């Protein structure tokens, strides 16, 4: 997997955890969901397109 994609996924997970634990900053949960969806779309695009660059 691409290093940038792994970093995006980790950031999305961290934001989801922080957003889920702190109700005062509930907007972080939405940011995490959006970033996670973007990371998932990028991952699926790489899998479907068949790019195997390392």
UniProtKB/TrEMBL annotation:
Keywords of the record: Membrane, Transmembrane, Transmembrane helix
Membrane spanning residue stretches: 26-48
Name listed for the protein in its UniProt record: DUF2207 domain-containing protein
Naturally occurring in which organism (per UniProt): Microbacterium trichothecenolyticum (Aureobacterium trichothecenolyticum)
């Amino acid at each position: 997997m691409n290093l940038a994609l792994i970093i995006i996924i980790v950031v999305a997970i961290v934001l989801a955890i922080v957003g889920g634990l702190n109700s005062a900053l509930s907007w972080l949960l939405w940011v995490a969901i959006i970033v996670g969806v973007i990371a998932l779309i990028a991952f699926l695009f790489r899998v479907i397109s068949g790019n195997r660059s390392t």
